[in-house]
């Protein structure tokens, strides 16, 4: 069964606007971590933000914030004030306990000047 | 050097060749991973090493052979590959057994083309 679902294969956003990338997950483990990674065309997977299942506050890192809706099992990434350099693939990932990291299929974000 | 370094960045090999991918991490992590990323597919976890011991092999064909001589180095030996093995191969490391953010740090990948 798919543990991480990203339903948006591609998204477009105007420069300086905000964009939300969707991610839903499936787990019965009470302890898990949710991650977002950015993959530019160069190939490297760049860690953006982390949310633990027990964290009370939504995670934020600069222009990135994670909208964590635990009851809905969603962990959407919000990028504010989009920049041209934000154009890339974005992957949502999850670790259950200390099990391995599993990824969704990704969303390709294109920022339009 | 910092982070996770992978060499080579690009590799073209024939189906009868033997080659190796190298990964080195400078983070003092105790676990290392190989992932395969094919077009339009989720990242596939191939191998996991914890403290140099292989703890997972996700039904990977024997033409892929991993080696972890120490906690900082990880190799993927390739032989008699098929064209469908063409992909981006990503190495990652993590520090296991500690609390908090236990995400993986990735290298830039090796883009492999089998001809």
What is the beta-strand fraction of chain A? over 45%
- The portion of residues forming beta strands of chain B comes to over 45%
- Main β-sheet description of chain B: 7 strands, mixed
Between the first and last Cα atoms of chain B, what is the distance in angstroms?
32 Å
Count of DSSP strands of chain B:
11
- Give the quaternary arrangement of the chains: heterodimer
Number of strands of chain A: 12
User: So what's the overall shape of chain A?
Assistant: globular
User: What is the terminal-to-terminal distance of chain A?
Assistant: 39 Å
What is the CA-based Rg of chain A, rounded?
13 Å
Biggest interface, which chains? Answer: A-B, 22 and 23 residues
What's the helix count of chain B?
Answer: 0
Helix and strand composition category of chain B: mainly beta
As a percent range, the share of helical residues of chain A equals under 10%
H and E string of chain A: EEEEEEEEEEEE
Radius of gyration of chain B: 14 Å
**Which parts of chain A are unreliable, with pLDDT below 50 for 5 consecutive residues or more?**
none
Overall form of chain B: globular
* N-to-C series of helices and strands of chain B: EEEEEEEEEEE
Tell me the structural class of chain A: mainly beta
């Amino acid at each position: 069964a798919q543990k991480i679902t990203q339903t948006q294969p591609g998204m477009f956003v105007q420069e300086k606007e905000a964009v939300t990338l969707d991610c839903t997950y499936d787990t019965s483990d009470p302890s898990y971590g949710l991650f977002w990674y950015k993959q530019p065309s160069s190939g490297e997977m760049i860690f953006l933000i982390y949310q633990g299942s027990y964290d009370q506050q939504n995670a934020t890192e600069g222009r990135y914030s994670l909208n964590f809706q635990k009851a809905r099992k969603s962990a959407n990434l919000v990028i504010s004030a989009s920049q041209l350099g934000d154009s890339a693939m974005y992957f949502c990932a999850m670790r259950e306990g200390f099990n391995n990291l599993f990824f969704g299929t990704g969303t390709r974000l294109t920022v339009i000047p | 050097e910092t982070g996770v370094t992978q060499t080579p960045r690009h590799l073209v090999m024939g189906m009868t060749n033997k080659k190796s991918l190298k990964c080195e991490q400078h983070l003092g992590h105790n676990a290392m991973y190989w992932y395969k990323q094919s077009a339009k597919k989720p990242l596939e976890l191939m191998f996991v090493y914890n403290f140099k011991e292989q703890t997972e092999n996700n039904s990977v064909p024997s033409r892929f052979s991993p080696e972890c001589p120490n906690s900082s180095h990880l190799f993927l030996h390739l032989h008699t590959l098929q064209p469908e093995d063409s992909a981006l191969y990503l190495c990652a490391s993590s520090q296991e057994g500690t609390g908090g953010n236990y995400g993986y740090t990735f290298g830039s990948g090796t883009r492999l083309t089998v001809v």
